[in-house]
Amino acid sequence: MAADNDDFAHRLDELGASIADLSGLFERAPDTEAVLSTVCAEAVRLVPEADMASITTLTGGEAATAVSTDDRAVLLDRVQYRSGEGPCLDAARTGGIVRVTITEAGGRWPEFVQEAKELGVGSFLAAPLTIEDGMRGALNLFGFGAHGYQQFDATTLRLYTVSVESALQADRRYQQAHSLAEHLNTAMRHRGVIEQAKGMLMLIHKIDEKAAMQRLITQSQNTNVKLRDVAADFVYRVITEQSSTQPGT
């Protein structure tokens, strides 16, 4: 009993450390695929009875394997995609945990079970995973033993996937905010040069602001050049011409 309690406490500590490390994962991994590969490998480490893992994605009804720790996991996924049924697809579609042995799964997913037997896989555990807007999926664990996983294994995997979802969403919000800030900064820089060009045109040609803006727009349309580039080019030319006419130049 004491050994079981120690194992339980150790598993909780490892789960807590993995969850705490999720935020740093996005700084280390170059893209979403790299993040999911790390998540996949970490799930195998967190659940001792898991021998391999994959992540299934569902986009517009189309299923695919985003990443895996073993080519055999990909083979098992593909059988499900062809037949349209299996534990991974069930978890992705229903949003619930699927935990079964090969014996229990025999009557539900015959094609999948046949492939699993040929590969020596006896136990399955899958948890739903929302990767991004419009893309649902599942984190799938396969075991060579017929243990069927324990309830604590299912709880561990679900807690981990929920934390992964939260981290993915937080990172997506950060990236969106960062992108918006860059767009705003760019817009402000462009606005500045456009206002500068308008002011120069008003001064040189003795016209009002509306007429100056129309000159820039017309030039942009006639040359098929972006308005900000037309403005920047005009400002540059005016400054260059003024510099060349200064005494001593």
> How many β-strand runs?
5
User: Count the helices. How many?
Assistant: 10
Biggest β-sheet: strands ordered side by side in the sheet: 2-1-5-4-3
Strand content: 15-25%
Amino-to-carboxy terminus distance: 92 Å
CATH architecture of the largest domain: 2-Layer Sandwich
- For the record, the CATH class of the largest domain is Alpha Beta
Question: Nearest-angstrom radius of gyration?
Answer: 29 Å
Determine the CATH superfamily of the largest domain: GAF domain
Outline type: elongated
CATH fold-level assignment of the largest domain: Beta-Lactamase
Question: What is the domain tally?
Answer: 2
What value does the average pLDDT take? Answer: 85
Q: What structural class do the secondary elements suggest?
A: alpha+beta
Q: Estimate percent helicity.
A: 55-70%
Residue stretches low in confidence (pLDDT < 50, at least 5 long) are none
Task: Give, in order, the helices and strands.
Answer: HHHEEHHEHHEEHHH
Q: Can you summarize the main beta sheet?
A: 5 strands, antiparallel
Describe the structure.
The protein has 249 residues and is an alpha+beta fold. The chain has two domains: 176 residues, GAF domain (Beta-Lactamase, 2-Layer Sandwich), CATH 3.30.450; 66 residues, Winged helix-like DNA-binding domain superfamily/Winged helix DNA-binding domain (Arc Repressor Mutant, subunit A, Orthogonal Bundle), CATH 1.10.10.10. The protein is 66% helix and 15% strand. It has ten helices and five strands. Strands 2-1-5-4-3 form a five-stranded antiparallel sheet, with helices on both faces. β1 and β2 form a beta hairpin. The radius of gyration is 29 Å and the shape is elongated. The termini are far apart. The mean pLDDT is 85.
